[in-house]
Amino acid sequence: MTTFQRSGRRAPDQLRPVRITRGFTIHAEGSVLIEFGGTRVLCTASVEERVPPHKRGSGEGWVTAEYGMLPRATHTRGDREAARGKQSGRTQEIQRLIGRSLRAVFDLKKLGERTITLDCDVLQADGGTRTAAITGAFVAAQDAVNKLLAGGKLAESPVTGPVAAISVGIVDGTPLLDLEYVEDVACDTDMNVVMTGAGHYVEVQGTAEGAAFTRAEMDELLRLAEKGIAELVALQAAALKAP
Amino acid sequence: MTTFQRSGRRAPDQLRPVRITRGFTIHAEGSVLIEFGGTRVLCTASVEERVPPHKRGSGEGWVTAEYGMLPRATHTRGDREAARGKQSGRTQEIQRLIGRSLRAVFDLKKLGERTITLDCDVLQADGGTRTAAITGAFVAAQDAVNKLLAGGKLAESPVTGPVAAISVGIVDGTPLLDLEYVEDVACDTDMNVVMTGAGHYVEVQGTAEGAAFTRAEMDELLRLAEKGIAELVALQAAALKAP
Amino acid sequence: MTTFQRSGRRAPDQLRPVRITRGFTIHAEGSVLIEFGGTRVLCTASVEERVPPHKRGSGEGWVTAEYGMLPRATHTRGDREAARGKQSGRTQEIQRLIGRSLRAVFDLKKLGERTITLDCDVLQADGGTRTAAITGAFVAAQDAVNKLLAGGKLAESPVTGPVAAISVGIVDGTPLLDLEYVEDVACDTDMNVVMTGAGHYVEVQGTAEGAAFTRAEMDELLRLAEKGIAELVALQAAALKAP
Amino acid sequence: MTTFQRSGRRAPDQLRPVRITRGFTIHAEGSVLIEFGGTRVLCTASVEERVPPHKRGSGEGWVTAEYGMLPRATHTRGDREAARGKQSGRTQEIQRLIGRSLRAVFDLKKLGERTITLDCDVLQADGGTRTAAITGAFVAAQDAVNKLLAGGKLAESPVTGPVAAISVGIVDGTPLLDLEYVEDVACDTDMNVVMTGAGHYVEVQGTAEGAAFTRAEMDELLRLAEKGIAELVALQAAALKAP
Amino acid sequence: MTTFQRSGRRAPDQLRPVRITRGFTIHAEGSVLIEFGGTRVLCTASVEERVPPHKRGSGEGWVTAEYGMLPRATHTRGDREAARGKQSGRTQEIQRLIGRSLRAVFDLKKLGERTITLDCDVLQADGGTRTAAITGAFVAAQDAVNKLLAGGKLAESPVTGPVAAISVGIVDGTPLLDLEYVEDVACDTDMNVVMTGAGHYVEVQGTAEGAAFTRAEMDELLRLAEKGIAELVALQAAALKAP
Amino acid sequence: MTTFQRSGRRAPDQLRPVRITRGFTIHAEGSVLIEFGGTRVLCTASVEERVPPHKRGSGEGWVTAEYGMLPRATHTRGDREAARGKQSGRTQEIQRLIGRSLRAVFDLKKLGERTITLDCDVLQADGGTRTAAITGAFVAAQDAVNKLLAGGKLAESPVTGPVAAISVGIVDGTPLLDLEYVEDVACDTDMNVVMTGAGHYVEVQGTAEGAAFTRAEMDELLRLAEKGIAELVALQAAALKAP
To answer: Where is the Exoribonuclease phosphorolytic domain positioned along the sequence (chains A, B, C, D, E, F) (predicted)?
Structure first.
């Protein structure tokens, strides 16, 4: 079996160049531009001193996410969801995933009755926008938490550890890490994996786009994902060390 | 470690009683009431001789799904989505999952330029509505295809094999097959698995509700799911054999 | 003039077989499947310990209804109203009618500050869905009230008596009781009548679909309706006597 | 039993002063301001040379209606439906009624493939807006038809005769013709009747607001309505005779 | 250069006949029909003893406006915004302009915590609907304020002076005052000017429909507008003097 | 009168530092990040080979704009318009203004039957987002046109010249050029001016936020705007000269 040839001679188990720019915009408590190759997502963390109805009076906080894509983030212009008057099913699915992923590393009791909203807006898309969003949103959330700690609003961090995400998939029989757009379109199986820094699973979402996939294929994909996420967690830590 | 005690002395790897009633309503080309214990979903398959815009002129058909829950299918009354004016993110996520799962066993070229719509409406909910919906929708779709074959509208079946789905999860450290509502609420990890009759994966969606889960836990859950789905596929076949 | 021939040799003044199944689903305080021949409507009564804004602090309760039709309850698939994002004028008209009809036999002061919501969902349609819905909703509402009485939440029943509804119409010059779908489509005049057990009118809605109708025709239709409703009220009482 | 005292010493079977002003605005093919006492409705008839999808290619035309109420047509300001983003159930019910009523006196084949839209906008409300709207819309529609005949677009009138509407009700035991607002609020039974010039029924919609009503009461109400409509039809004819 | 010939031999700097009818409808605290030639707008002022959230507890009141156009106010029938489910961008732009213009002559502190809503509904359109609306809304608002003063609810008027508006534009090189519809369609530059009775600017909105306009042209347009507004302010005062 | 002190010792007639970055994203035919001090707007130009209905078959093209603001572009998080389900009046007003401004320098006949959509998304807001959007959108549009010319799809440029926009206002009696957020909030009069490279007006929108403004004040503001726009046009030209 010949191996699928990736752009830029990327190895099957290699991430695209990842860049994490903190403080990309000035107003948000956390603001991170994350780039996975040509995919660029602006992740902001906003802290508000109130919680949604289902948490009122509980002493607990809430972490939630919203996701959007600028109309021309993609090859051809997409509808503006605000103009169309509703968010697509895909958008809602992604923002629910980001929210669950971030809550997985938050102790909501320690957060107190406040909300952190992660806005993940795709400025440019080249595959893997949801995994970039989760990975970047964690850094933005950590910055927001650090600001709360520094301001004396929190005595103890509600963050239990890092969380990151990556896509994996099988293209022409080759399992690949971190799919870019042309690979995503061509792949038979597409899996998004969200893991904690401790190497445990938060979300696994595997979908057979073409033929159903075997257990052996799944095992290989999970192995790739684990490798990629370990690298992303290291990159998050490095980015957060900078002043 | 003590094992979680299931209602009705159900074993951890045991399905709830499954009942598949074909021809539950009279107008649809396929109409199946599927019951997983207290969960009851009416799945109808409707054949229409037209396709959505992205398939027009392609010679291919389309298979899609819509999902709904009657307001009082649950313990407390939920909003009627038609009255609220929009489908929730959860509803959209589920109907997209059902659609993808059914398309995984359809050769759209062989279907010709027509659409099969699977409407899955939950009459009574007790956990596992989406997996019951997929499992029942396959039977309704097969009935609709059989009608097209019998009517001479199709020369050859576009169905490549059965598809079924089941939920698995970890409650109090015990991996369980086919979660009912109280187990679903209590579980740390919740996974929905969709597989073909050949034992290959169509979808795997695992979510850590509480603590992140380990690879060993995932392996155990996948093993349980495989067992359950094999049983469901047998039940589908038995139901379809009846006149 | 020859008389219009009804399916199954039904006489012009004869109801279709009516079946009332209480406890059809388990969660609602009242849950009734009512069948008028091929028309099947699931009516659930939900009790909630709050009232809408216009009744708050009044000491009075509220009774209201919502109506829906599963997309494939009919010969050809209809749009799902939740997906389209709004309820049709027809749906709103029907649910307002059901609500008014039920309130006509409720003493809202005796109900106390709580709401009973009647959800009437058509599983299968063959004409007369709104009249079946009203007739079944009364039984579900009575079951819910009985549960409140048994639980000590009400000292006295707020129900002043039964209410039921039937359609009548003129097809090919013949006045008919309880129109099924093919008759409904063919009729010149269509009338829905809602009456109390005491034989008084709650609603009369007559519409000339083709030629306008005379006073003599209306009198004949009212006579048929009165007969039908008396039979329905007896069937409701019989169903409610069962344990 | 003492008789309910009406404002301005109006007799129980007396209409309010009715005024029909043709040509109230200049752009529409028919434009009528109709006044039933303090109720003032602007009815315009617009002719468009196209039909809705269900009539395309049928050779038949269509007659339809839309209804609205200016926010401050009433004692207290109501929401503007355009701002709220949807029409209420009441609005839809009324505009469907107006449309059916007008179609009852139109031969759609003779109209040809064109649409007449009746816009009925309430400038000031004092009870009976829907019956005033129907009565005025007929005059506007007739004006539009006359213009089509005069312009040679129609060889023969599609109008089969006049149609008018009135409300009747029982207040404090007294049956009354043409309810104004304070009577409408106080009434036990409220009935809207739509009749042709030939004295046949197009619509009868009776509702028990309080106690259910008897057959004798209905007969009395129908008698009052018949009298009122005969007078309205004469007023329509007189208005249409003026140049 | 020949001068553009206006209908009815109107001079370039001449207003159309303006008519202001107070008390046009009976329920609103202020109700004015204003006519600029063929343009007729019903402006009602409604007083409500509450303020929107951003003013609650501030001790200040609020003045706001809504704008609508009846579907057949224009040459060809337009969509009913309530039926379409949203207000157009044009509608929102206009109602925001009316609201700002009126607030410019209100001391919100003196108004106290109440809201005056100006509903401006176009019954017939022939150009200049927004300027007629502002000019008429002021008269309606003044009437509402006078009622509050007379009723002892206000000790002192919150109105700081009159406000009025007019359109100006350049057609075929000729600057014109108060454009009617055919002029509006033909003009290169269109400007709406809102001024106080003291001759100061509240809003200036100039738009080049065709070629961009020069400073000299703008100066000429502003001169025309100033003349027109002075006349409108005099007409408002005269109308308000009548009982 | 003391002069208002601007941040960074900016002179009253001085623009903030302006930065125009072409090619900010890769997919759009034109993609410009424009910065007016802390205000950063991403403007993309998308070319599509179709026109809206009102231009079909006309041989003419169309130029239109959409505007959005990321939820956390501002000091406190705003609602996401896509989630709320509609664009605010402010958003619609701004996008209509951008569209008109760009069309003012396009010869739609020369564009041919294609559409250029300008998407202006605010990444960070500090006053003047609409004027930055117009100024940046022109550069993006010019880049898209250049691509059409280079690709041989256009023989001749449809662009008649540059267009740019700036805000001016009066704060504490001092007329200021290019208001930043704190100045915008504090100003009495706020004016947005759009001009061509030839120094002619495309749009003038002046609003008295507090007291109405005099003709002398308007003249001074227009003078400032003219100066600022001349500088912006030079900056656009310089940016477009770079490869």
So the answer is: 14-144, 161-228
